[in-house]
Amino acid sequence: MPPPSERAGKQAAAQQAVDILHEIATILNTHLDRRTLSICISMIENGVNPEALAIVIKELRKRGQEIELEAAAAAAGVSTVPTRRR
Amino acid sequence: MAFLAQQGALIDELIEAVAGIPKTRRQQRAALRDFVARSLQGHTFTRTNQFEVQDRLRGLEERFAVCGREALAEALDQRLGSLQQHQTPTTPEVLHLLLELADRPAQHAKLSD
């Protein structure tokens, strides 16, 4: 195990790299916050394909919005299930 | 499933961070977990080509300049330069992800963010 000072140095360097990547993410208008970006970096380090991950993120955003709308409609007492017309 | 054992915790975090579904909604979370695991495992994408990523980033810098967003082009160039000191084997893949998620940056990106 590396000494604590070395570990702290590596951690600081990794944090800096995430900071820079987050700035690039902002310039590219990716709508990723720092926490989500850190999760994505960990997944990619574990072998996840970036293109597949991008598709998953877009779909999760969509589904998150749908669930939010459903919850808002339920709170307002409106059904989001379309009714069949005769 | 080895994949879920390895990625399960990160998938849960991703669902919470991106879709914002609270832990109390177990059924919806479980369905999304399944969807994410299947999508990440069953894809047919090839590996990231770091030269292609570099080309796309340079192309974007040029587009910023053409669209009169020189400050944005300069900011991107500066960050890419700084990133060279922090390169890891997965840096091109992370940049690839960012390029895939880019949302019309020449029109909508704000430096103040």
Shape of chain A: elongated
Helix % of chain A is over 70%
**Unreliable sequence segments of chain A:** none
Q: Give the helix tally of chain A.
A: 3
Please tell me what the overall shape of chain B is.
Answer: elongated
Q: Largest chain interface and its two residue counts?
A: A-B, 44 and 51 residues
- Total strands of chain A: 0
User: C-alpha Rg of chain B, in Å?
Assistant: 18 Å
Instruction: Please estimate the helix content of chain B.
Output: over 70%
Distance between the termini of chain A: 72 Å
**Helix-strand string of chain B:** HHHHHH
Structural class of chain B: mainly alpha
Oligomeric state as shown = heterodimer
Tell me the β content of chain A: under 5%
Q: Would you tell me the overall average pLDDT of chain B?
A: 91
Q: How would you sum up the major sheet of chain B?
A: none
Q: Helical stretch count of chain B?
A: 6
Keywords (chain A): Cytoplasm, Cytoskeleton
InterPro entries (chain A): MZT1
Protein name (chain A): Mitotic-spindle organizing protein 1
Subunit structure (chain A): Part of the gamma-tubulin complex.
Description:
The complex is a heterodimer of chains A (86) and B (113). Chain A is an all-alpha fold and 86 residues long. Chain A is built from three helices and no strands. The longest helix of chain A has 27 residues, at 50-76. Chain A is elongated and about 60 Å long. The termini of chain A are far apart. Chain B has 113 residues and is an all-alpha fold. Helices cover 71% and strands 0% of the residues of chain B. Chain B contains six helices and no strands. In chain B, helix 1 (2-19) packs across helix 2 (26-41). Chain B is elongated and about 50 Å long. At the A-B interface, helix 1, helix 2 and helix 3 of A face helix 1, helix 2, helix 4 and helix 5 of B. Chain A: Belongs to the MOZART1 family. Chain A: Required for gamma-tubulin complex recruitment to the microtubule organizing center (MTOC). Chain A: Its main location: cytoplasm.
